[in-house]
Amino acid sequence: MRFCTKCGTKLKENESLCPNCGYDFQSKEYKNNIVDNTQPINKNTATDNSDFPQYENSSVKKSLDSKKLRISIAGIIILVIIIGVYITIGRSMTDPAKLVSRFQSDVSSNNVADLNKILYCTDDRLKIDDKNSGALLLYFKNNPSHLNKTISDLNSEISSSNFRYANNPSQSNFSIINAGKTLLFFPSYKISIKPTFIDIKTSIKDVEFSLDNTKIGKSDTDNFSREFGPFVPGQYKLYASYNGKYTSLNKTYNVDLVNSTNGKVDIDTLTNLNYVKINGDYADAEIFVNNRDSGVKISDASDFGPVSSDMKIYAVTNQNGKKLKSNEYTVSNGDDSINLSFSESKNQLSSMDNQMHDLIYWYTNSFSDAVNYNNFSDVQPYLYPGSDLYNEQQKYIPSTYNNGIKENVVSFNVLSYTMSEDSKSGTVTTEEVYDIINASGQTSTKTFKYNYGFKYNEDKGSYQLTSLTNSK
Q1: What is the pLDDT of residues 161-211, one digit of tens each?
Q2: Which of 210, 232, 324, 360 is the least buried, fewest Cβ under 10 Å from its Cβ?
Q3: Dihedral of alpha carbons 203, 204, 206, 211, sign
Q4: How many helical (H) and strand (E) elements, i.e. helices and strands, does the chain have?
Q5: Domain boundary among 215, 239, 268
Q6: pLDDT at 58 over 90
Q7: Do 62 and 174 fall into the same domain?
Q8: Is there a single domain that holds both residue 28 and residue 129?
Q9: Considering the domain boundaries, does residue 73 fall inside one?
Q10: How far apart are the C-alpha atoms of 342 and 283, rounded to whole Å?
Q11: How many CB atoms lie within 10 A of CB 178?
């Protein structure tokens, strides 16, 4: 079956001239003698060639418009299909439920690289990098129940009727946020991390702070307070360290930024470090801290420190050549003033004065009796057994007696003495006057200055002399 290629009219077999439009397929021309059978022939106009071609061109135009319409409809259908596929793919790729599943998978497989791509924080100071993502993975690894809760909360957020995919994250540690556009029109959803902070306080300057072995800062003033962060939600260890002139102190604090209030935790560090005012009976007394000389006098210790609890403080002064030590004060947490008293030391000094006086008094008088009667046992209680002076007097007393010499003490005076830190030994300087009677009965008065060594005898419960040398 054949059709006219110009107007679409059905042609008979071997027909070369279209009866409708007059197109001759052999000559490739329109023949004017073909007329529309549906219209009456006007003999006056039948030969007018100007009207007939207009009729033929209108038919052709209708045929062409019909073809173009079909093509346009087909194009529209194809475009609708493409748009539908685009929308379907876009919605699938940006489905927040798939994002949550991806987040859970990354955490389970420790996929830090992919986790960096889907995490987001509205605070630009919190960098989404391997370090922070790694800290998050470590927290979830140590707290698997919190991961389950986080996934459950995110899924609940998606299914909530109030879920609008807003640009502002919720108050929870993890939420879904629209962080931009993808595929031109679709929202780019990410897991938003809530930034958390630590407000660190300390009353002391030069305290260093580290978070999980990473140094984060140092107090540059007394009564220091500063906010550090942001950090990813998690559990951390805050290390505070101080190395000062009188004490060194450090302490570790557990910091929970998951269950923090309003995303911030307050930590007051090294509260047992503080300054104190030191008072005492003697303003020029030197202060000792844990048995070390601080180089500071009581008169200059109105703001002494920093000191820490359990620190031991005392002061030492010399009065009339004699050492006085105050009571030893153990610092307690919260102390702001310390009073160092020398009353016990003064009582001990008075007691020591008496003991030195008594020791020399009984020794000199007993020594005279021992020489005059050749009786070493008279002086023996005042000599430390086995000491140099003990052995010397054992020889001197009988020798002097045998030479007919007698010695009588006229007077003595304790000039000074020193005492060891443990009060177990020391030296005493004396001035002694004796009447010396020789074998001929002649008497001469002589004055001697001696330095004695002495030592405390635990068995006797008293001091005894150990050595004797002439004092210049």
Answers
A1: 555 544 555 668 888 888 767 656 677 788 899 999 999 999 999 999 999
A2: 210
A3: negative
A4: 7, 26
A5: 268
A6: no
A7: no
A8: no
A9: no
A10: 11
A11: 20
* SS3 per-residue string spanning 82-132: HHHHHHHHHHHHCCHHHHHHHHHHHHHHCCHHHHHHHEECCCCCCCCCHHH
83 belongs to a structural domain:
no
Identify any residues that bridge with 465 across adjacent strands, giving them in sequence order: 383, 454
* Domain range enclosing 312: 273-341
Same domain for 413 and 462?
yes
Q: Is the pLDDT of residue 37 over 80?
A: no
Has residue 28 got a pLDDT over 90? Answer: no
Cα–Cα distance between 430 and 305 in angstroms, integer?
Answer: 43
Domain count for the chain, please give it.
5
CATH number of the domain where residue 235 is located: 2.60.40.10
Asked whether residue 329 is domain-assigned, the answer is yes
C-beta neighbour count of 264 within 10 angstroms = 15
Question: Is residue 193 within 8 Å of residue 258, measured between CB atoms?
Answer: no
pLDDT, mean of residues 43-61: 47
In the prediction, which pLDDT does 83 show? 78
**How far is Cα 144 from Cα 57, in angstroms, rounded to an integer?**
81
Extract the tokens encoding 166.
């807003």
